[in-house]
Write a structure and sequence with these properties.
Helix content of chain A: 10-25%
Structural class of chain A: alpha+beta
Number of helices of chain B: 18
CATH topology of one domain in chain A: Beta-galactosidase, Chain A, domain 5
CATH class of one domain in chain A: Mainly Beta
Oligomer: heterodimer
Number of strands of chain A: 44
CATH architecture of one domain in chain A: Distorted Sandwich
Distance between the termini of chain A: 100 Å
Distance between the termini of chain B: 37 Å
Helix content of chain B: 40-55%
Largest sheet of chain B: 4 strands, antiparallel
Number of strands of chain B: 29
Strand content of chain B: 15-25%
Radius of gyration of chain B: 34 Å
Largest interface: A-B, 69 and 69 residues
Shape of chain A: globular
Chain lengths: 744, 721
Amino acid sequence: MKKRTYIWRIAIVAILCMLLISQPLLAEQAPAEDQKPETVYTDWTGDSTTYVPVASNGGKTLSFCEDEMLFRVEEVVEAAAEGETPAGRVWYSAMTPETYSELEDSSRIWRAYMKSLLAITYAGRTEARGNFIKAYSASDDATIVVKSGDNALRFDVEFPDVNIALALEITLEDGNLVARVPADSIREDGEYVLLTVEPLPFFGAVAKETTTDGYLVYPDGCGAISYFDRVDDKSAYALPIELDIYGTRNLEKTVEDGAGTAMLPIFGIKNADTAVLAAITDGEENAKIVATTALETSAVPIHHSNFELWYRSEYRIYLSAASTASNSVVKKENFGVKYDPQLQAEDREVTYFLLTDDDANYSGMANAYRDYLLENGLLNKDSAASSDLFLTLFMGAEKEDAMVNAYVPMTTYEQAQEICKTLLDGGIQDLDVMLRGWSKGGYGIYPQSNKLEKQLGGKKAMKALNKFVGENEGLSVSLENELLFTGKGNDIAVKGTNVPISDLMNETFLLTPAFLEKRVQKLGKKVSRFDNLSTAASTLGRIIYPDYDKKTVSNRFQTVETFKEVADNHDFAAIQGGNQYVLATANHLYDMPAGSSLQQMTDDTIPWYYMIVSGNLTYSITAGNRTGDLQVLKLRWIEYGATPTFELTANRSLDLYGTTYNNLFSSEFTQWKDRLIEISNEFNTALSKVKGQSIVKHESVGDEQICVTYENGYRIVLNYANEAFAFEGATVEAENYVVLAPAN
Amino acid sequence: MKKAVAILLVLLLVLSVGFTAGAAPSGDYTINDGVEIAIPEVYEYAYTINTVLGEKVPSEDEEEEFVPGEERTHLSRPTDMFMDNDGNLYIADTGNGRVVKMTTDGHLLQEYTTADGMDFLNPQGVYVRPNGEVYIADTGNSRIVLMSPEGEFIKSYGLPESPMLSDVLVYNPTKIGMTESGALYVLMGENIMRIDGNNNFRGYIGQADVGFSLTDAFLRAFASEEQKKVFEKKTASPYLNFCLDDRGMIYAVSQDTEEGQIKVLNTVGNNIYKKVGSRASSWQAISDAINGFFSGNIISKKFMFGEMYLNKQPEFADICVDKNGIITVVEKNSGRLYQYDSTGNLFAVFGGKGTAQGEFEIPASLVVDDEGALYVLDQSYGTVTVLKPTAFIEKVQQATLLYEAGDYEGSDKLWQEVLSIDETYPTAYIGAGKTAIKNKDWRLAMEYFKNSINRDEYSNAYAELRYEFMKSHFWVVALVAIVAFMGILLGLIFLQAKAKALLEKFELGYVETITLKNGILFGTNVLFRPARFFEAIKYGRGRIKIGAPLLVLVVVFIVRLVFIFTVHYPFQDVNPDEANLVLEFIKLILPVLTWVVAVYLLSAQMDGESTLKENFICVGYSMMPYILANVAALALSHVMGWGEKGIFAVFVNGVTIWYFYLFFRAVQRLNDYSIKRTIAVCLVSIFAMVLIWFVCLFGYSLVVCLVQFVKDILMEAQLMM
């Protein structure tokens, strides 16, 4: 009898446990609401030897050839003159047999890769060393079932050996090719789990032999370009570009500055008179961009770029904690990589914008993507987007001292007001000021305090500043709040090993995304009564990261959702960093990159990012007092369409020696005052015609000369050289620029 | 303590730069007082020569001749580079067994692959004479070859014949250089040797004193003859690379930590560059301590060329000097470049290891052109990276040159311009300060030197200022000094009389107890008559309260803190910003307290008569000289310059001997020990002190290890789940 009750008890507990565990799982898998009407697919019945049209719109036709397992998009061309065949341009889903048949050296695997519709990587369920295997849809160990639907194609791809299956849906929408990997199509029934998917890895790829007129563009920093005709003049060790979208996936590096990341989920390939702009239009937070020209290190002489969509988080683990306890540098073999058991199966979608002729260049790509963002409400169209100066005032920081850390005031609230007054009196009409390190304890105190600093003047002085802002229309003052970086506490994000995500010094931690809203409210609590002051959000547009804490779990997708929501709830005056998810709400982006990371594959930096967002919101790059050559930086501001920016203090920067912020060069306001007024007024007058206008074209017109064209036809010619430059009858002085009015 | 550990970690992990909001975009910096200071970009990445464009094809007359072609080739493990007067680059393309001559945009002009019927094997050095003749160190073939500009073989040099070279088994010349007079310098192994035009050996050059190593001497003293043979033969610090300037000066980089890794050798081989390298011998600690003692522990500017990278001394791969004497070196492991002026002031640190353009994997060679652009040869990537000076560094270099040329006004104007761009740039303050000295504006100079944390120069400027003041106010100064001296003397006489009276009253019992009120006056007797004073304490057992000696210790600590914060700038031994209360307590008070415990415990075992309280009282009072001497030193420091640091040291450190003597006498008197016995007890007490600290530290680290162990186990367990 006794035994039976025991079993009963276990059963009840087990059921309860199962209920508890399944609840969050069920909640997470709830289907999204705003789904498009489902396309009904039937088995492919078309002719297998020729290209059979599937869809036609936007001046292009999508057709499919079953024997070659290739589809293509073709330009619909008006009937040509008699005797001429219409020459519509064609984009193939993968490399055509003609291309790779000539590549005798390429191995069997590479051949399969080049003709594949998709490639995946997978690993064993219990993998702990980070090993994985790559498989290709065109290889012998994959089966494909083709289906067609209304204007669409569907490929059900299965890898029977490892029991993994997924589908790729292809449609043509307004002449753009759209590839989807529906979440519900993914199956992992065996011992293996899916890690990544590369949809259409060779779409738009260019064989080296076919042309030298073209390039790859990728959003490294503000944009970078690698020309086909310069591919032979690269280091023998140049490597492909890999960019994690929105923030590095390597949690050890999240807190450090974000190299190897992209703010936009796009890449571009120009091939003579055609170009492809690829953009992840759904699920971009879990992906990276891989771009490679036909480098010496490449296996095949083909310029290609693709997205790698991640379906599982991975995290580094210490395989033997005991052996790493010594002071010696941690050995590589002591690390392993584990994959999250949970599949992150959101729908993924990649759109390929197909461009031709005058649009077949990075300017055309930028215009197409800007239009896409605006149409879909992903980019804030701020009609009042203009600013003559974005001024960061550094207020104060802590200095380590004998007894307690000493506070070093750099700019008091009253001095901030004085500075604003001086600048407004100097004629600056549109002045945006951000106070950095305004709160108690100063800059770099984590978590940031929400109290005012007494040594800066406290409540009374802030009140006066608030009043002053209210009285001056062209002035806006915001308080910079550190949202994501925090100190050790209960509200920090952890890795899969339950260890906090932190910097090497274990001083800076990351806030659990779930607590972000709460933190924003807390930071605003004490200053909310200063109704004329707004807030600026530090790091919000700069990094994303997951949190593995069981209570507050958030993957990259959920983190982005949280960030978006917070940015939506609070109208931040400025946001640090420009990851795409903040563009829908941002008014001003600050601390933006002034260049790219100049990887060996890169030939040039281009302001690709700025071309896309220009005219819709304002942004600022390097501060004018952080350079040795202000004249060149000023040209850069103009070229990028950026707002002039400075980071100043009332006291001299020498006082910051020994604090956590000893990186300002010269920052004393009195010293810079005149330059500030001069430059802002110059921007306000000379560049008034292009204010609030988008950059539609950016091109080199000489070795060190750039021409930027705005949507209203105005052009700015910039001359970075030390000698004057003649351009269309106008003379551009050395290290200077001219604004050219449209011809008519 | 936590703070101290944190500081240490910062020093150890220089690489782990945390995230700062608006960090300087360039990452270039300078080092001042061991602290990295961000500066505006100094060299801008211009471009990289990734490949050599051109090929050598047979021409019509079927002789191999250079014809410009379209072929692009990569360099393979290149090791040396030279720039001729026309601005063409010569590169020892070691892996490809050739030397290439090319333009700075990578167009091949000439290729040298073979000489005297023998193909080059691992050529590692190249030097071009003004007439275009090329010397090639054909390392793999153990020869140096002279070629005509057109690639014709002229002459070949093997190992010179000399009894001094009899132990050279394999001749492997690497870097070469030549003076106008025709002396050829060759880096062979780790030595630079000089050879004349007839291939006669003229000796090794720039051999540093091998120095004396304590551990080495110790080992040798006890080693057998056979063991001695095993010990490595002591040699001078190895040279890594060198270059020559127009005057025939040799600019060399070595691994010499004694004189500094960068040397400028004149023709007789003497190093004329600032000899300020950090020492790294076994004498280090001892000599540091001795120097510190006699100079009053003043912070002296620690100088080293380059910086430690991953706990390793810098290893400079190459050095170049421009026409103005500005020296640039490149460090092999960190990939960083360091630029110095002709007197060893650091301008900037830039470059670095990495995969991006403008970063290096293994930099091997460095040249500078007439425009000041730097060319860095990367052995691993096989590329030449070209860096162009920015307007900022050009201003800095120009300001230095104007100063050297005697144009102080022009120099100052430029330094002010530099400071308007970067107010925190220390080199500019040194420059501006030097100009201010030339203009006899001592106060301004002092301010500049203080801004650059240069106590040495500050002190010089101060000495000048003081001299000027003395000259004009001599009689006033003299009068004040005499009056002050007399005053202090009279005060001391009066004090000692009063103290003596109190002591006598105490001895006779007229004063029953010594409390906080009269304790300080009572304690001053320790300064004048220590033996009698300690006797009095012994016989007055129970009548002396602990308050006054405790107060003395508190005052000692306060004096120390006041000293740190108010001592004259050049005499600081701790930077007030970095001062740490806990650390100061550990340094000053903790040893005293441990001494009390140790002495009490020991004397109790050795027929001692003293109590713990008495020991404490004696030791407390014995610290009174410290107060006196430090207050005096503090006051004097404000009228002293660095030249008088000896006097300062007597006050600050000499007093240590005084109170050590008092400690000793206290032990002796309290316990009625003989001198011999006292010495024994004191020595054992010191040992006991060390033991006490050791046990405490040991316990602490054990706990830490235990905690770590448990943490590790938990983590492992978690991962298993």
